[in-house]
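Supplementary notes (optional reading)

For those who missed the lab, this is the record we used. Protein: Flagellar protein FliT. Length: 87 residues.
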Amino acid sequence: MLPTAAIREAMEADQLDVAMELIAHHERDVRAALAAPSTADRSAWLGLLAEQNALLAHLKFARAQAAEALQRLKSNHDSVRAYRETR
């Protein structure tokens, strides 16, 4: 099971090392499961796929917010520079 909530909490707390360790641990589990296929049904894999897609959507949203904040910062910087040049 992908620890989506824990990964999101770590990201929101700027604990990227913790988030990366959670993802790495999960990746090891998935690789081990794929290396030794069982007779389990596909529903577990489809559930995992849904969880990964939800996390990916969260990461895309966070990236878009960061890009917007960076653009606002750049715009503010440009405005300050333009103001200083007119003085």
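If you only remember one thing from this example: Residues 4-86 form one domain.
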